[in-house]
Give the backbone structure.
Amino acid sequence: MTPLPPLTSSMAREHAQATLSVDLDALAANWRLLAEMSAPAECAAVVKADAYGIGIEPAVRALARAGCRTFFVAHVSEGARARLALGVGSPHTIYVLNGILEDAATFAAYVEYGLRPILVSAEQIHAWEAHARTSGRPLPAAVQIDTGMRRLGLDPAAFAEFAGALVRADAAFPLALVMTHFVSSEVRDDPINDHQIARFKKTIALVPGVAASMANSSGIFLPQKPLFDLVRPGYALYGGNPHQDLANPMQPVVRLEAPIIQLHHIEAGETVGYNAQWTAKRPSRLATIGVGYADGIPRNAMATDDHDGGEAIVLGKRCPFAGRVSMDLIIIDVTDVDDPALKAGTPVELLGRDITVDDLAARSKTIGYEILTGLGRRYHRVYRGGT
């Protein structure tokens, strides 16, 4: 039996039903803008969740070339990927946000890949102290303070019990960073922001000389300027709007396009899609593309008779979805596209400069974070710039 030929990159491109383009120059420009706004604080980059869906390896390389020295991931496996992308022995610092699992393999991975844990409990502090003493080498770590999120971290009172021991000259490990996380930084006038900032300032006063970090993407823009020593933008790096009610200062990073598979006409009164949720109010022309909720376009982007759903750009015209988003397919109402170039194969833009991740999220009753991190693996991915 003749073996099947391997799938080459050109074949993958030809067979893909959609293309996700990632602008690494825009990613770098977003980081430089945030770094300039945050100076003299250091600007790190959060690259968890496969760099918010764009690909951790190309993202960390582009950010490092732009000048980023510190990265944050959620899991050890992500940290290992980031380290390998940057180069074993590279001087960049990589923090792992989700604490540690207290087993030998996890401890070994931290050492092997040069990762720093963010310790979130008294038990984890004790475990890392024991590991550091056994290893006989300095193993820097961070500690997270819970100032209101109630998700991970030590209560300030609990941290106070450790503070003196953590900064002694004979401490088991170097305390490299103390951090916390905002509850509602995208809402500039939320009183919880001032409450958290005050709690954090009081807490870090217990460990003078240790770097402190609080601001995420939205936190950088708060009028209180809670920048401290290091900021940790994530969403804004990838083009997401750090504001809830202001224009987006960030450049778009992703563009999603798919070709039309089929065009067809229906008469007024005919229904479209699962459960007949959308009814044509006039004779209509419909286009079907090979993207669906399995590719990260939310099922809630559906259009019904009484609800506007997602939209797409077709030959420069903004066109609404028609009916439910299927697992692999979306139907688009292209009746108003009066262009002879409209045919099977015509590209349709789902995300880009005109329809942002925040736009699609709003029409899907979700947030842009979910749109970005859910971008599927079936796309042909094209990376531009970043050199």
